[in-house]
Amino acid sequence: MKRFKLLLVVLIVTFVGIPHSTYAQSALKASSPPILKINQYYILFTYPTSPYVDQNNRLLVPLRSLSDLLGAKVAYDAGTKKATIDLDGHQLILTLNSKDALVDQQVKHMDTVPVQKQNSLFVPLKVMIDYLAVNGTYHADTKVIELNDSKYMKNTPHLTEETQDRAKLDEDQNAFSITSYQVNVGKTNQKGIWTGSFTYQAKNITGHTIAQGKEDVHSVVLLANGNTQVEVYNYMREKHKAVSAEESITKTQNLIGNADLAYIIVKPYAVK
Length: 272
What we know:
Order of helices and strands: HEEEEEHEEEEEEEHEEHEEEEEEE
Number of helices: 4
Pfam family, one: Cu_amine_oxidN1
Protein name: Copper amine oxidase N-terminal domain-containing protein
Domain Copper amine oxidase-like N-terminal: 46-146
Oligomer: single chain
Structural class: mainly beta
């Protein structure tokens, strides 16, 4: 919690003092839709890049993120090119570039394949919904893929815990819908530092005007070394303007890091 106290004082967050990871951050760009939402959190980035839609119109997510976001146990055998995913008493085995899936020792067929991207395996989220009882819904009107279960996001406390300035706030945690976003990260320089930014649009879905000072849509950024960057609510609260019903707002956040970008999530809150 000392980290959060510091944020309230300095107001500007940078990542210094901890060596960067062994993998230099590559320049990247990611955008939406569709958008992945888990419980009340919008997932804009998962290392090494944001979830994306493949040529078969299926959302692919990094294998490693399934552990953090859904609580699955995952493993990848580079020799056999097989990924094993264990979740809620079920086991799923996928093979790179293969439509065959082994679900609790039974062969199933998918309509797309796991692929390797930036040295990471990406797997179709639909197979998790179809065969591992992941509670998921696709909203065609908003192009949001929504996963809901109290067990999800339990392995990411740095992303989900609130700063002290929000600890006593009574908030509507689904006041906004994230409708689009874009992430831009530059290459790591010789000092091990990279910079970038991300922008997202959020639509007021409460059905009423959110009064001045009550809008609290904010982001949390996590680096591979555990450092975080968060937005502080009490800092210049007058910047939180009134937002009419169905009105959209746009927010841009600068990024700087000395370790790989691991996650970006947005919390679509409003203070009651």
